[in-house]
Amino acid sequence: MNTPSSNEQHHFVLSHHDEAAFKTGGLRSYSSYRDLGVAEATNGLARAHVIRMIEPYRPELSVRHRHDVQFQMVYCLRGWFETEFEGVGRRRLHAGSSWVQPPNIRHTVVGWSEDCELLEIFIPAEHETVSDA
């Protein structure tokens, strides 16, 4: 895992809501992502994006995995989102709630509402996701 030095220059980035900014092709095929410019502003120290679920939940979309990060936080903007975490069990976010996932915790997404939208923040911006499949 390569994390930039905190001494590297950060700069100002402003991100306004724009429906056209939501892109597919990210980690999850059932989601679209709107990058908030945090990786650019921090020279790769962190990343933040809004995730919108674009397909209904189906059990075959659930794959146990982990993220090789130093920090990961998820905040539910709309709807709900549920995940099962190794050693913790099932947890459900509702609009206005959040969780912080320990680095490399194995987990499986187990459901979401049709209107689910999440804010995800993690360090570093680029990291590996390892699937158990």
Automatic annotation (TrEMBL):
<protein>
    <submittedName>
        <fullName>Cupin domain-containing protein</fullName>
    </submittedName>
</protein>
<feature type="domain" description="Cupin type-2">
    <location>
        <begin position="62"/>
        <end position="122"/>
    </location>
</feature>
<dbReference type="InterPro" id="IPR014710">
    <property type="entry name" value="RmlC-like_jellyroll"/>
</dbReference>
<dbReference type="Pfam" id="PF07883">
    <property type="entry name" value="Cupin_2"/>
</dbReference>
<dbReference type="InterPro" id="IPR013096">
    <property type="entry name" value="Cupin_2"/>
</dbReference>
<dbReference type="InterPro" id="IPR011051">
    <property type="entry name" value="RmlC_Cupin_sf"/>
</dbReference>
